[in-house]
Amino acid sequence: MIQPTLVLIKPDGLKKSLTGNILTRLSETKLEIVAAKMAKVTKDLAVKHYEHLKGKPFFDELIRYLMGELHDRKKVLAMVYWGEDAIQKVRELAGATNPEEANPVSIRGQYGRITTKGVYENAIHASTNDIEAEREIKLWFEPDEIILDLYPSKKATITSVEKRVWA
Ligand code: IDP
Ligand code: MG
């Protein structure tokens, strides 16, 4: 099945200068990158991204992790990979959630660690299924930021929206 998946290089991956290595590993999948940007991660965005983990003992620390507060890198590299079995291919390359259990040659096995506060710092996020991919891609990207029309969109005239423009 041809499908998209959301990939994030998390703040530990950026801080450890792993972006190039991780992108090289991902290129083994022969999938296409159809969207990419450096994104600042607000608390609201981090909480929405990990809303399925609300209530877990590590939740607050996980939010601080995704926001870059543990690594002094307040950003992530957000990308949409697209192609045949994209979700499963990227998950396999990423490895298990717990870096200690991840295949040693997977991205998380190679680069992940467990912090003394107990958060799994695992360098990369990858969607786990189609529903999650759609929710996450819509959370991180607007339709015009993606090269393909992945999901139905509509034109909207937005008035009174305050945003920064070049001075
Ligand atoms: P996933 O990233 O492999 O899809 P999720 O269960 O969605 O795993 O968890 C999201 C993130 O939360 C993980 O990537 C990891 O950083 C962190 N995490 C998940 N489970 C634990 C745990 O049991 N202890 C500490 N951190 C965890
Ligand atoms: Mg997950």
Care to describe what's here?
It is a single chain. The protein is α+β, with helices and mostly antiparallel strands and 167 residues long. It has a single domain (2-145), classed as Nucleoside diphosphate kinase-like domain (Alpha-Beta Plaits, 2-Layer Sandwich). Helices cover 32% and strands 19% of the residues. The protein contains seven helices and six strands, in the order βααβααβααβββα. It has helices spanning 11-15, 19-27, 43-49, 59-66, 86-94, 107-111, 130-140, and strands at residues 2-9, 32-39, 76-84, 113-114, 120-121, 124-126. A four-stranded antiparallel beta sheet has the order 2-3-1-6, with helices on both faces. A two-stranded antiparallel ribbon has the order 4-5. A hairpin with a 5-residue loop joins strand 4 and strand 5 (120-121). It is globular and about 50 Å long. The mean pLDDT is 97. Inosine-5'-diphosphate (IDP) binds next to loops.
